[in-house]
Design brief:
Layout lengths: L1 H19 L9 H80 L4 H10 L2 H114 L1 H21 L11 H8 L17 H10 L8 H4 L13 E4 L2 E7 L2 E4 L8 E4 L5 E3 L4
Antiparallel strand pairs: 1-2, 1-5, 2-3, 3-4
């Protein structure tokens, strides 16, 4: 008997503990759900501000990279010209050296060399000896001056070439640094876009909960009104059976009206004309400067899709200044410095890529953002 009482006590204790560790939470109220939705929208607004700042930094950096590319091209041309000048100077120096050797040869062959000097010395003609010596000295001095001049020129050009090559190396190092910064910004922007996309999903979920809670409350209110209506009808039937049907008909009409007012909202479909025009040009070849109808470049293609006319309304760089969107819809423009396309949904776009390719569907790269046609 004692063991039975102990066993019963243990069961009772276990049931008590199980009830204690299973808390029941109250469902969130409409105000709490709306507050949660507002907090998420505030977070999204902050994230969009950060994204806008990052994209501005990226645009500034891309501008620096473009300027640096021009400098690299100019420096490469200077180096190529210095190399040509160096080759010309070395060639001219060799020509001068060959001319000097030829003059020396002619001097000796014409008897104006050592043999002639010996004859002059032997004859005792001091005037001829001085003339010959002076001529030889002038020739040697001219050759030395010419050779020194060209040696100085070659040294100067070599020094210039080395300086230009050093400057080129510095510019290339700066270019690599800029590219690394761009890669980091691209990664940060992609991460921030993912964050905004996640917030969009959470906001939609929160909005759905708010809508469901509103609908639940409206349904409760409607049921309460119906219950009140039935109570009044029942009371009226007790007092006046003749007027109850009139009251009931009136109330029934009111209830029907109330039911009609609670019908759900519907969104108007987005026009697909921009996307339809994009699909209609699949397979058309890329041609630089073309705006259709049988070939396009990237901005020419986007201009046709947006307007339906075969004309360029903006360049890809101009599209970068249009209003940006974080929740792109089919028909928005995918854009980065130097390229653009038409967003068709699902992370894909239709664009005219580059020379040798055709208008085609592709995934939207992480370094592109979305803008909306303001027209």
């Amino acid at each position: 008997m004692k063991l039975k009482r102990v066993h019963s006590a243990l069961i009772a204790a276990a049931l008590t503990c199980s009830m204690m560790v299973t808390p029941v939470y109250a469902a969130p109220t409409l105000d709490e759900l709306q507050e949660e939705q507002q907090n998420l929208e505030n977070q999204k607004e902050d994230a969009q501000g950060q994204l806008s700042s990052l994209q501005s930094q990226l645009e500034t950096l891309i501008g620096k990279i473009d300027d640096l590319e021009v400098q690299l091209i100019d420096k490469g041309e200077e180096i190529a010209q210095a190399q040509k000048d160096l080759e010309a100077a070395e060639k001219k120096r060799q020509e001068q050296y060959d001319a000097m050797k030829l003059r020396i040869k002619y001097m000796y062959e014409a008897g104006s060399g050592t043999a002639t000097m010996e004859k002059v010395m032997e004859s005792g003609d001091i005037s001829s000896m001085l003339t010959q010596a002076e001529y030889s000295q002038q020739v040697h001095e001219y050759d030395r001056e010419q050779l020194q001049e060209y040696a100085d020129t070659v040294a100067e050009i070599e020094e210039l070439q080395q300086t230009l090559e050093t400057e080129m190396e510095n510019l290339q190092s700066l270019e690599a640094e800029y590219q690394e910064q761009q890669d980091e910004l691209d990664a940060t922007i992609a991460s921030k876009q993912d964050e905004i996309s996640n917030l969009d999903g959470m906001i939609q979920e929160a909005a759905q909960k708010v809508a469901e809670e509103k609908e639940r409350l409206e349904e409760e209110e409607r049921q309460r009104q119906l219950e009140e209506q039935r109570r009044q009808e029942a009371a009226a039937q007790q007092n006046n059976s003749g007027g109850s049907s009139n009251n009931g008909g009136s109330n029934s009409g009111g209830g029907s009206s109330g039911g009609g007012s609670s019908s759900g909202n519907s969104l108007a479909p987005v026009s697909g004309s921009v996307v339809d025009r994009a699909y209609s040009k699949l397979g058309k070849p890329y041609v630089w400067g073309a705006v259709g109808p049988n070939s396009f470049d990237c901005s020419g293609f986007v201009g046709f899709c947006l307007t339906g006319r075969y004309e360029r309304i903006w360049t890809s760089s101009s599209y970068c200044g249009w209003p940006r969107v974080s929740n792109p819809q089919p028909g928005d423009i995918c854009v980065r410095s130097g390229h653009c396309g038409i967003y068709i949904g699902g992370g894909q776009m239709i664009h005219a890529p580059h020379t040798g390719d055709v208008v085609k569907i592709a995934s939207v790269p992480s370094n592109m953002w979305y803008v909306r046609y303001p027209g």
